[in-house]
Write a structure and sequence with these properties.
The complex is a heterodimer of chains A (334) and B (347).
Chain A (H helix, E strand, L loop, with lengths): L1 H7 L5 H19 L6 H26 L7 H15 L6 H26 L4 H19 L9 H6 L3 E2 L3 E2 H16 L3 H11 L1 H6 L4 H27 L8 H13 L11 H21 L3 H25 L2 H11 L6
Helix pairs in contact in A: 2-13, 2-14, 3-8, 3-9, 3-11, 3-12, 3-13, 4-5, 4-6, 4-11, 5-6, 5-11, 9-11, 12-13, 13-14
Chain B lengths: L1 H10 L5 H23 L6 H26 L7 H16 L6 H24 L5 H20 L9 H8 L1 E2 L2 E2 H18 L2 H11 L1 H6 L4 H27 L11 H10 L11 H20 L4 H30 L8 H10 L1
Antiparallel strand pairs in B: 1-2
Helix pairs in contact in B: 2-13, 2-14, 3-8, 3-11, 3-12, 3-13, 4-5, 4-6, 4-11, 5-6, 5-11, 7-11, 9-11, 12-13
The chains are: A mainly alpha (334), B mainly alpha (347).
């Protein structure tokens, strides 16, 4: 079905609408806080965005396969406390912890994927279980907020390189470039195919289970990196990352134009979505609104952003919308 | 399509797989408590069992709305906030007097139902994904509540509500009686009325429901409204139980409502699930959290055990489908009409 739509007219990607919204919000933010356009201001903004952006990028892979993953906060909690406990204790701690968090994230992701793809559990519930268990592991490693992150991670990863490039921005660019390459690989195409129609994907010879398994694994690795970057931002470890962060990760993905039904959207949109949510916080803070208004604005802007994204669905082919609605009703796990 | 669906469902008198799931989950809760009794003979007194059931009422009630929304293929992430708002409203409005309860009760319930209806309007007409609509709406109303109360806790819940949660009828605590009524009323509404049946049909296949001309928008709005109402009732009872109300007291119940629905055998993408299953899931989770508290382990181990048991419960649940298929001598997945129809229509 994607071939027929592609053949007729290429719809405007919904990430373009998210990017437009981001531009508008950033412009308003600039009015209130002109220093935001300086290198320091941009570095600061990107540093605030990156944890959410990486986590949202990981979640996108899972959502594209039409599954859900709640384990991000669990993995981030574990890897964050790992960074805060291990990175100062061993020589070359920054590098060793980086490997370690990736492996931990991959492991949890592969467990999730195994439960969902091979044992046939419902992803929402299974990953809720691993999320709670991971939070437990984090509490065993570090009982209360504390620990210490290696100075190298804290200073270098939040700074700039080559005099003009914030490290956080470089990482995001690498992530986006990696995604653009990954999208063209066999696995990348399979992820879209599985999310669009699992039955058709299976009939055309794709290994649906392996695809989902690997998508969960890669997502887990992204959460691990997000936890690592969180350590770089805060300088300490906190085993109790709040569940509201989890909701923001999902909101970033949805605002970026990846519907929860799977098969459509992509990582770039989610990164922009994370940017929108971050700029929104910054903007509300810069304007100086009281905390309760912040919540109200948060809610309203989320809805507006989605409506904005829906506009793209209306502008793009109608057929596509009908197909997806049709598919939403058909999602019956095997 | 609708006609076939309704007729077959009503005429099928075979043992429903969902009922088996629910019974197994309840059995799991009992086994867990027995195992606890073996490990710790002091555990498992009548009072302790009664306490587990009493504290399960919040989840039993709130998860009903969640179950109804999930049955439609949606999800309600505003339940925690609505529970808190209901508790704060009833505490703030009654200000410790029973007389005020006569008007404060309907005002609270109607306000919270309105929050739910707003969720439904956004989902049904603006086509906003339920995940975002309910999250955003909940966040916004949390902001409103924060603005009005300035975040301070309310300590003046009407005494009648507190009495309700601690009174007994013929030796049985009132909350347990209420759970019984709620279970019957909820099951009848969900599985024995035409409106409930239509919700099953919409959740099974939106396209088919549209072709059959079902009032999709109206039922979607109604389901979210019911979810708001249930969350409000749960919040009232929670305020009565803890005799004070805070703005975050409902938060710990949000994830468990989803877990209860799924452990009870419902399908998160809609169209399958019984309230009896959700009820069993809620009892299971309440028993689990009580047992874990009794074990006096560190919070970390408690979380690991809780997460592990949720996953084990889910794995066992998938295994029982094979069990049932042997019993019914049918192919796996064929016993339930709800699961089969959309798949066939797709092929």
């Amino acid at each position: 079905m994607s071939q027929s739509t592609r053949g007729q007219r290429r719809p405007i990607p919904s990430s373009a609408f998210a990017a437009l919204l981001y531009g508008i919000m950033f412009a308003i933010y600039l009015l209130y806080s002109p220093s935001a356009i300086t290198l320091a201001g941009i570095t600061d903004l990107l540093n605030n965005t990156i944890v959410l952006a990486i986590a949202a990028a990981g979640l996108t892979l899972v959502i594209l396969t039409a599954e859900l993953d709640l384990s991000s906060v669990g993995v981030i909690a574990v890897t964050n406390v790992i960074v805060a406990t291990v990175s100062t204790k061993v020589p070359g701690g920054a590098f060793i912890t980086l490997i370690l968090v990736c492996l931990i994230g991959l492991l949890v992701g592969l467990i999730n994927g195994w439960l969902v793809a091979f044992l046939g559990l419902q992803s929402l519930a299974a990953t809720l279980g691993t999320m709670i268990a991971c939070q437990g592991v984090a509490l065993l490693i570090l009982e209360a907020p504390g620990g210490e992150v290696a100075a190298f991670i804290m200073n270098r990863l939040t700074d700039t390189v080559f005099g003009f490039m914030p490290v956080a921005g470089l990482i995001l660019l690498l992530a986006v470039a990696g995604w653009l390459l990954f999208r063209r690989t066999r696995l990348g195409i399979a992820i879209y195919a599985v999310g669009t129609d699992a039955l058709a994907a299976r009939l055309s010879g794709l290994n649906v289970k392996a695809t989902k398994w690997l998508a969960f694994g890669l997502a887990g690795m992204a959460y691990g990196l997000a936890g690592y970057m969180l350590g770089a931002q805060t300088g300490t470890g906190d085993p109790r990352i709040s569940n509201s962060f989890l909701l923001y990760v999902f909101a970033a993905v949805a605002i970026g134009g990846t519907p929860l039904g799977g098969g459509r959207g992509g990582v770039i949109g989610s990164v922009v979505g994370a940017g929108i949510l971050t700029v929104m916080q910054k903007l509300l803070f810069a304007v100086g609104v009281a905390e309760f208004y912040t919540n109200i604005f948060n809610g309203v802007i989320m809805i507006v952003a989605i409506l904005f994204g829906n506009l793209s669905a209306i502008l793009s082919l109608r057929q596509k919308a009908i197909m997806s609605q049709h598919r939403d009703g058909q999602l019956v796990p095997n | 399509m609708n006609d076939i669906l309704t007729r077959s469902l009503v005429s099928s008198r075979t043992f429903k797989p969902e009922t088996l799931t629910a019974l197994l989950v309840l059995l799991g809760a009992v086994l867990m408590m027995l195992a606890m009794k073996v490990l710790n003979p002091g555990f498992g007194s009548v009072q302790q069992i009664a306490a587990i059931l009493t504290t399960s009422i919040f989840l039993v009630v709130a998860a009903y709305g969640q179950g109804l929304v999930i049955l439609l293929g949606g999800i309600d992430l505003s339940i925690g906030v609505v529970m808190s708002i209901a508790g704060m409203m009833i505490a703030g409005l009654t200000n410790g007097s029973n007389e005020a309860l006569t008007w404060a009760l309907p005002v609270t319930l109607i306000s919270c139902t309105a929050i739910g209806l707003l969720n439904g309007l956004g989902v049904a007409f603006l086509k906003i994904p339920p995940f975002i609509m309910t999250l955003a709406n909940g966040t916004a109303f949390f902001g409103v509540a924060l603005g009005i109360t300035a975040g301070s806790s309310q300590r003046t819940v009407a005494p009648a509500l507190q009495v309700l949660m601690s009174a007994q009828i013929g030796g049985i605590p009132v909350p347990i009686v209420l759970i019984g009524w709620f279970l019957v009323a909820g099951s009848v509404l969900q599985s024995r009325t035409t409106e409930g049946r239509k919700i099953y049909a919409i959740g099974s296949s939106l396209a088919a429901a549209r072709v059959a001309g079902l009032p999709i928008e109206a039922l979607t709005i109604a389901a979210y409204g019911v979810s708001g109402l249930c969350a409000a009732i749960a919040g009232l009872l929670l305020a009565g139980y803890s005799s004070s109300a805070t703005l975050d007291m409902g938060d710990p119940f949000l994830m468990p409502t989803i877990a209860a629905v799924v452990i009870g055998g419902a399908c998160v993408t809609g169209g399958r699930g019984l309230y009896f299953g959700t009820f069993a899931g809620a009892i299971f989770l309440s028993a689990l959290s009580t047992i874990i508290t009794v074990l006096s382990l560190s919070q970390g181990w408690r979380n690991i055990i809780q997460g592990g048991i949720i996953i084990i419960a889910l794995i066992l649940q998938t295994k029982q489908w094979y069990l049932l298929s042997i019993v019914n001598r049918q192919l796996p997945g064929k016993q339930s009409l709800d699961g089969v129809l959309p798949q066939n229509s797709e092929v």
